[in-house]
Amino acid sequence: MTNEIYLAPMEGLTGYIIRNAFHHHFDYIDKYYTPFIPAAKRMNFKIKNDISPDNNAGIIVVPQLMTIIGEEAMDMAHQLRDYGYNEVNINLGCPSGTVVSKGRGSGILADPEKLDHFLEELYSIADMNVTIKTRVGFNDDESWPRLVEIYSKYPISELTIHPRVQKDFYKGAIRLEDFDLAVSAIDQSKTRLVYNGDINSMENFNLIKERYPSINSFMIGRGMFMHPSLAAQIKGVTMEEAEYRQRLKNWHDEILNGYLELFSGEKDAIFRMKEIWSYLKDDFEDSNRIWKKIKKAQNVADYKAAISTIF
Ligand SMILES: Cc1cc2nc3c(=O)[nH]c(=O)nc-3n(C[C@H](O)[C@H](O)[C@H](O)COP(=O)(O)O)c2cc1C
């Protein structure tokens, strides 16, 4: 089976401008997850703009929801259905303090019975495809076997696992033994398991694929910004260095121009570009020097001067 690559949801990064840039210049991504949409009775303009079909032409997008109330999830899902979506993903992995303090995101993993009730309520009323993205625990992974048992009870068509606990945030060793458990305990003919975490090179990808030959779906976040051609590499597409650099420039320029149009001030656009470069710099030999110059840029002119030597 061929490998499917999904762009991870990343707040502040994987909005429609970035999705379009990947789609136009590195079109090797099978699905794109939106950054989480907070639970609210009505979606605001920013969110409607992000998920609007006009802004996502030809892109397979899965909106991600941040809620731990079944009815609220389906209410949001139905609003999204009006825009043509038939699948939503629930965020049970976000480690941020403001999210977990409300028991949302990975916060719910601290209380497995609460998770069980949520999923019971959710799947009893779900009339659309509802998938899940999770971590393997809150403070530690002691209750992971119980969490796996709970996930196994419900008709979850796709379960993405980031094998870290809330306390790990995005750092530290990946807890592969927890992913091992999921692979052996979850019926993969019913639930597609998606591996997510630290795939940022072909080497890492190959190690994961060798360990899990039955897994064909991989969600990649930071790695896709470190090497925007990573999905192409995984799919065995080769490109000359010159072609890669040209595509990278076009990808970059589309994002910069998109941000300059989207945000009223240059400052916001430059702030967002810096976030991309905090990952992308690794794709360049002279990364320290480049990164220093980019960090100093306060306006578009400075920024363009900083990157002029790169492309
Ligand atoms: C800046 C940032 C924002 C993120 N926002 C979200 C989000 O909105 N929803 C979500 O499920 N995960 C979010 N994540 C987690 C990623 O989707 C992913 O699980 C994590 O980065 C690990 O994958 P990676 O090692 O391939 O980056 C975010 C991560 C980062 C670094």
Description:
The protein is an alpha/beta fold. The protein folds into 2 domains: 4-234, Aldolase class I (TIM Barrel, Alpha-Beta Barrel); 241-308. It is 46% helix and 14% strand. The protein has 14 helices and 8 strands. It has helices at residues 16-25, 45-51, 70-81, 97-100, 112-125, 144-153, 176-185, 202-211, 222-226, 230-234, 241-262, 266-280, 287-296, 300-308; strands spanning 4-7, 31-38, 61-66, 87-92, 129-134, 158-161, 192-196, 217-220. The protein has an 8-stranded parallel β-barrel with strand order 1-2-3-4-5-6-7-8. Helix 3 (70-81) crosses helix 5 (112-125) and helix 5 packs parallel to helix 6 (144-153). The longest helix is centred in the last third of the chain and has 22 residues, at 241-262. The two termini are 37 Å apart. 39% of the residues are buried. The model has no long low-confidence stretch (mean pLDDT 96). Flavin mononucleotide binds at residues 8-13, 35-36, 64, 91, 93-94, 133, 162, 170, 196-199, 220-223.
